Amino acid sequence: AIVVGAGFTGLYMLHRLRQAGLTTRLYEAGDGIGGTWYWNRYPGAACDIESLEYSYSFDEALQQEWKWSSRFARQPEILEYMNHVADRFDLRRDIQLDTRVTSAVFDESACVWRIATHRGDAVSARYCVMATGCLSTPKPIEYPGAERFRGRLLRTQAWPREGVDFTGLRVGVVGTGSTAIQCIPIIAAQARQLTVFQRTPNFSIPAGNGPMDPDYERRTKANYQALRAIERDSDVGICARLPPDTRRAMDVSAEEREAEYERRWAAGGLYFYCSFVDLMTDKQANDTVTAFVQRKIREKIKDPALAELLVPTDYPFGAKRICADTGYYETFNQPHVRLVDVKRAPIREITEQGLRVGDEEHTFDAIVFATGFDAMTGTLMNLDIRGRGGVQFADCWQHGPRNLYGLMTAGFPNMFMTTGPGSPSVLYNMVLGNEYHVDWIMDCIEYLDRHGCRTIEPTPAAEAAWRRTVDDIGRQTLFGNASSWYMGDNVPGKPRVVLPYLGGFRAYKKTCDEEAARGYPNFALT
């Protein structure tokens, strides 16, 4: 087998493949392992799921021995953890770093994938697993003139390893998504002047981060097995501190709703997202949580006019990725921090001195672009992948992703993807979601071996039916009421389709488990 990508998925995939006796090679473009947590080193980079839950569950000794220093781990600690895992399970001997896969071509006569890399490697394998991640291809800077800027131009997804000192500098930050919301307070603490360019405001919940509570850690670890079982049978994969509420928002009194929102707001992080079961399917219910969060944001900002710019008002809470912050809104109360609304006056170009926005030129010593990713499809679309008959993978997905369960695409036998479009993916605890996909793939490979099968791929009819299912469920939610990367809206020219499966992880897992138990009836096996 060949595995592409050394993030959380790739490492566990390599471990499981080797356990099953498959000769395996993992290729990683970076010069270190870690995937997302290798590339994203910007100031304040941290997970928005608690450390004790955003971690591997496949090995109990690993769960017990690793000690997290904080409730929400920051990037350096997550990267340290992943390196520990690579060493603990002796994974490095089968990982080739600083090696970018340039093509993957299916050889029909031999039933193998032929892989080429930028280093000149030419290898073949029966199976190819694309563990390339959902947020791994940054959007290009969409404004002309980057080469003219005389200051320092920085991108959050390729942050200098040595870090950046903004002390005394005039800094511009373009973007107000999850990444920007994490780094803006830290940059503001250093910069002489900070200007933030916002096109669309985002809802952000206080993270409530802090040192790990030893008693909380002890209780969680004593109950890890039961906790993980509950997480795997939930829709979001987090429940250690507060289980998801199973009530409907309008079935309780206004006072009870307010109390529940307050309780979860105080708990911090994405637990707030689980306040009631119907927030993303019932507009009346969503209106109550949207109004609550809008009020909370306004309370943090001294200038009412500024607050109106920072408060989202034209889409439902949760329809865009919810952010978790530490002092983000309060940062704008500082006199040296300015917010510029680029929806009113768009950025026109990057100049020698800074940015031209409308008719005004802003001068900077450094500009930070936190403008997001070509999410969920970008990486696979940009690879030269060719299946049966030399068909290009990118051509198959040009009108939107086409696959079954977010795991495989018809015409590309024995090529698996993990947490891809058509799966719950980014709306579930990603580490546990990746573990589930790896285990499903391994069960599939072992089934093929037991039954003497050489290849597996979805049938086109099943693939089309799954696309309809994903779309139909999406239309029953409020996600389509916002312009977001969940829908592909953030990349010009990208088809607008529902990318993640929005029916919840429990229903998804049941579907995939039944598929395997019935002998893969929606797949063609040879």
Can you walk through the features of this model?
Strands 3-2-1-7-19 form a 5-stranded parallel β-sheet, with helices on one face. It has a 5-stranded parallel β-sheet with strand order 8-17-9-10-13, with helices on one face. The chain is built from 16 helices and 21 strands. With 526 residues, it is an alpha/beta fold. Strand 5 and strand 6 form a beta hairpin.
Give the overall shape, derived from the CA principal axes: globular
Query: Which structural class do the helices and strands define?
Result: alpha/beta
Ends distance = 18 Å
Q: If you compute it from the alpha carbons, what radius of gyration comes out, rounded to the nearest whole angstrom?
A: 23 Å
Number of strands: 21
Low-confidence stretches: none
Q: Order of strands in the sheet with the most strands?
A: 3-2-1-7-19
How does the major sheet shape up?
5 strands, parallel
Task: Give the averaged pLDDT, no decimals.
Answer: 97
Query: Helix tally?
Result: 16
Helix content: 25-40%
Beta-strand percent range: 15-25%
Summary of the model, kept short:
By secondary structure, the protein is α/β, with parallel strands linked by helices.
Please write out the topology:
Blueprint: E1 2-4, H1 8-19, E2 25-27, H2 36-39, H3 60-65, H4 75-88, E3 95-96, E4 101-107, E5 112-117, E6 122-125, E7 128-130, E8 152-155, E9 170-174, H5 178-190, E10 193-198, E11 204-206, H6 214-222, H7 224-232, H8 254-267, H9 283-300, H10 304-310, E12 323-325, H11 328-331, E13 337-341, E14 347-350, E15 354-357, E16 360-363, E17 366-369, H12 378-382, E18 384-386, H13 393-396, E19 415-417, H14 430-450, E20 456-458, H15 460-475, H16 505-517, E21 523-525
Helix pairs in contact: 1-14, 14-16
